[in-house]
Amino acid sequence: MERRKELELNLDEVRQAIAAHTERDVSLIVVTKTWPASDVSLLYGLGVTDVGENRDQEAGPKHDEVGIADLTWHCIGQLQTNKVKSVASWADVVHSVDRPKLVQALALATTSRPTPLKVLIQVNLDQQIDDQADADSVRGGAAPSQVAHLASAIAKIPTLELAGVMGVGPLGQDPEPAFQRLQAISHELIREHPNATWISAGMSQDFQVAVNYGATHLRIGSNVLGHRS
Ligand SMILES: *Cc1c(COP(=O)(O)O)cnc(C)c1O
């Protein structure tokens, strides 16, 4: 099948599944990691406004190759401080802020931005992360107990805009308690930071559950683009 047609059918299916699941207006971020710039252009032609990428080395060149000004690019991958400057050159939103060092690096990298960079605090949703001596799990994310501290650090930086929280459902486990926890963390955050309303949660396998627990932004890759090799 022609690629455009394939993407169109998949996209329709995903959009219908979301609409069937909620009456809220939930944003769809199509995760285009590993797929070529030509797919991003096709998706744009099909009405996609938001794309997600997880690797700076891949996303920077892809962003430049696509060259569409009104697409919103989301950085959803774990970030190293030495990549932050480059990420800030292509990303409109960074979902993966999980430690104070990253906040400082992002502050430095955005000093000359005309508009603030939107950032989300990635929360580690694995059970009992707070009990671990080393909270630096491979999947990233701040311990829930660190969210308030990170939020006030971000709020102090004029070139950063705290947009909300992000979470990745636990691998091979029931995502329900994790997304429920993320929603509770979001509610707490909003009390201190009323504009930080985003909940970025839900991927191809678990987006319905995330929607049930208030997800405002879904990050869906393989359901739209196919399985990554
Ligand atoms: C790859 C990725 C996604 C999309 O995953 P799919 O299962 O392909 O929908 C979402 N979020 C993050 C953080 C990812 O790395």
Which quaternary structure do these chains form?
single chain
What small molecules does this complex bind? pyridoxal-5'-phosphate
Taken as a percent bin, the fraction of beta residues is 15-25%
Low-confidence stretches: 131-136
Backbone structural class:
alpha/beta
Order of helices and strands: HEHEHEHEHEHEHEHEH
Strand count, sense and barrel status of the largest sheet are: 8 strands, parallel
* Tally of contiguous helical segments: 9
What is the radius of gyration? 17 Å
Give the overall pLDDT as a whole number.
94
Instruction: Tell me the helix content.
Output: 40-55%
Number of strands: 8
Shape: globular
Strand order of the largest sheet: 7-6-5-4-3-2-1-8
**Distance N to C terminus:** 19 Å
Describe this entry's structure for a reader:
- With 229 residues, the protein is α/β, with parallel strands linked by helices.
- 40% of the residues lie in helices and 17% in strands.
- The protein has nine helices and eight strands.
- The protein has helices at 3-21, 37-45, 56-66, 84-90, 100-109, 147-155, 176-192, 207-212, 222-225, and strands spanning 27-31, 50-53, 72-75, 93-97, 117-123, 160-167, 198-200, 217-220.
- Strands 7-6-5-4-3-2-1-8 form an eight-stranded parallel sheet.
- α4 links the parallel β3 and β4.
- α2 crosses α3, α3 (56-66) runs parallel beside α4 (84-90) and α4 packs across α5.
- The longest helix is centred in the N-terminal third of the chain and has 19 residues, at 3-21.
- The radius of gyration is 17 Å and the shape is globular.
- Mean pLDDT is 94; it is low at 131-136.
- The chain binds pyridoxal-5'-phosphate (PLP).
- Pyridoxal-5'-phosphate binds next to β8 and α9.
